[in-house]
Amino acid sequence: MASYGRALHVLSDAWPVVDGNEPVGPTRAMNEAARVVAAQEITRITNGRLSVDDVDPESSMALTLFGIFGLGSIAFDEVNNVAKSLNIRMEAKTAGYRLEEGDRIIGYNQEAAGRRVQAHTVVDVGYYGPLVRKGSKLRLALPAERSAKRLERPQSLWDIMQGALVKYAQGDMPVARAYLETHAKDNQERVIDLLEVWSLECGNKELKKVSDGLLFGLRLQAKNAVAA
Description:
It is a single chain. This protein starts with a helix and ends with a helix. The longest helix is centred in the last third of the chain and has 27 residues, at 157-183. Helix 1 (2-14) crosses helix 2. It is globular. It is built from eight helices and seven strands. It has helices at 2-14, 26-45, 57-69, 76-85, 148-152, 157-183, 188-201, 205-227; strands at 17-19, 22-24, 74-75, 89-92, 105-110, 131-134, 137-140. The strands form two sheets. The chain has a five-stranded mixed beta sheet. A two-stranded antiparallel ribbon has the order 1-2.
């Protein structure tokens, strides 16, 4: 990849590439190459069951960013390049928002100084959008950082996946199962696929422990249902 980046700099000087009237520089080209690699990795992890095209636009964008950058901070311009390659628009959101059918957007919230989400809190202070911005950087919000109101009225499969993780952490399988029965009765296989990607790529022992526990419970439930 390092050699590819250097080669792109040389090639773009001699043979500029444009997207419409917009020049495509080496950084954007590298991001688009990374997007393709991430999409292939997501398909590999789920044994071909899931691709970024199988989910709604907001989930597709979150999943792709997760596949490329994990949970780390990402330069705003890099995220924007990935969004353009997926034909998804990024929008700053100050509070809750609704995704209408056909919307190809992903919302992001501004990170508030000292903002914390605690299990006993009464006031909903979490992030509605999957993305959080701080200065010129963006990152994916952790499940525990998401707005409780948004997760109780999920608008994407990414919301449902993170909501199930929160419910499992709060009350183990019975609570998580009830949540999925309400919000993903016909999409539990997709949620399991997302959880598999999350578990393998989250890079955090505590997050992985929760997702592995939830995955085990869901697989056991599916196995028992088939046996019955």
